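Subject: sequence -> structure tokens, single chain

Hey, anyone have a minute? Need the predicted structure for the following. Not urgent.
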Amino acid sequence: MTIRTSSKSVIFKHPFKIGTLAEIQPAGSYKVDTDEELIEGLSFVAYKRVLTVIHLHSKNKIRSLTRALTVTAKELKEALQNDRLANDNILEDLHIDYQFKG
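Reply:
Had a minute. Here:
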């Protein structure tokens, strides 16, 4: 069984919730590790995702401490989509209510 791991950074521009974690995470850059397993027996090389881990910022001020949370690819995708949608609803985020009188 061959497993490969890739790492990338994702950026949240707004505070967010992800997975089963109840607490809200601050906006910022987060490292995400993905493990993929080689699918054997095919005539071509293919991998399937088996693990996604997001490294969360420490609750205290020591930057070298992080917490790792296992999430599904769907949970990560939804959190990133919600963050992008929040950019489109900036007036809603600021709690500005414009009432037009005609």
